[in-house]
From TrEMBL, chains A, B:
<dbReference type="Pfam" id="PF01980">
    <property type="entry name" value="TrmO_N"/>
</dbReference>
<dbReference type="GO" id="GO:0008168">
    <property type="term" value="F:methyltransferase activity"/>
</dbReference>
<comment type="similarity">
    <text>Belongs to the tRNA methyltransferase O family.</text>
</comment>
<dbReference type="InterPro" id="IPR023368">
    <property type="entry name" value="UPF0066_cons_site"/>
</dbReference>
<keyword id="KW-0489">Methyltransferase</keyword>
<dbReference type="InterPro" id="IPR023370">
    <property type="entry name" value="TrmO-like_N"/>
</dbReference>
<dbReference type="InterPro" id="IPR040372">
    <property type="entry name" value="YaeB-like"/>
</dbReference>
<dbReference type="InterPro" id="IPR036413">
    <property type="entry name" value="YaeB-like_sf"/>
</dbReference>
<keyword id="KW-0949">S-adenosyl-L-methionine</keyword>
<dbReference type="InterPro" id="IPR036414">
    <property type="entry name" value="YaeB_N_sf"/>
</dbReference>
<feature type="region of interest" description="Disordered">
    <location>
        <begin position="1"/>
        <end position="30"/>
    </location>
</feature>
<feature type="domain" description="TsaA-like">
    <location>
        <begin position="6"/>
        <end position="136"/>
    </location>
</feature>
<keyword id="KW-0808">Transferase</keyword>
<dbReference type="GO" id="GO:0032259">
    <property type="term" value="P:methylation"/>
</dbReference>
<feature type="region of interest" description="Disordered">
    <location>
        <begin position="70"/>
        <end position="96"/>
    </location>
</feature>
<protein>
    <submittedName>
        <fullName>tRNA (N6-threonylcarbamoyladenosine(37)-N6)-methyltransferase TrmO</fullName>
    </submittedName>
</protein>
Length: 136, 136
């Protein structure tokens, strides 16, 4: 099957520097972080404002891509689960999904709260949160 | 900045064959569709069941990647908006995000409802819906 190329649009700047530090969920104590975008995508950001809730997609560049099942939360006493039923970073295409609140926008830099991504993580996309994501 | 390669894990089989037909949101009348996975990722699917709500990530392979602003809903009378404040398929890295309900699982094929992706769209990933996606 044909493959496709992701060209990151920016990087995360965060105090989280390794996977041992990263919380399992954004609201379990993830810090604030900066999204530092490339100048070439500035026009795409122009309607984002402080107070917005957005979904940030990242490329989890330190993940293992040859993993199809994991012990939930890394706990070896729990039975393995297929990765598509988990949010493990280890999976064939390690795209991270992060719902965050925008705290500030300064040109091509955006400060967000509750981002569980590691420092240096490439940013793939940013999307608004829609009702269809949350209501069913 | 370094680029990354997505190797699709499967494809969408849908009655939607062009963008003119596709509804803007999954719950505005999107049909049921099949997710047809590659046999190599079958182990990753083993805990998905009928009744699950999942997020399907796709690669919107018919999108334009050089677009940074769009008229909302394609309506030229509305002012342009930066793509990162919209769900337009046209954006630098056209990853689609679809919240769907699983209707049936048959080996490497999974039937889902309310999928707005076009026939043939490559599948990037499948993730469970978590509370943090919906509650804030």
């Amino acid at each position: 099957m044909e493959s496709y190329t992701i060209e990151p649009i920016g990087r995360v700047e965060s105090p989280l520097i390794d996977r041992g530090q990263a919380p399992r969920q954004g609201d379990e104590g993830a810090p604030e972080a900066w999204l530092v975008f490339e100048e070439r995508v500035l026009e795409g950001l122009r309607d984002l404002r402080e107070g917005d809730e957005v979904i940030v997609l990242t490329w989890l560049d330190r993940a293992s891509r040859d993993v199809l099942s994991v012990h939930p939360r890394g706990d070896a006493s729990r039975p393995r689960q297929g990765v598509f039923s988990t949010r493990s970073p280890d999976r064939p295409n390690p795209v991270g999904l992060h719902r965050v609140g925008v705290v500030a926008v300064e040109g091509a830099r955006m400060r967000v709260r509750d981002l569980e991504a590691l420092d240096g993580t490439p940013i793939v996309d940013v999307k608004p949160v829609l009702d269809r994501d949350t209501e069913r």
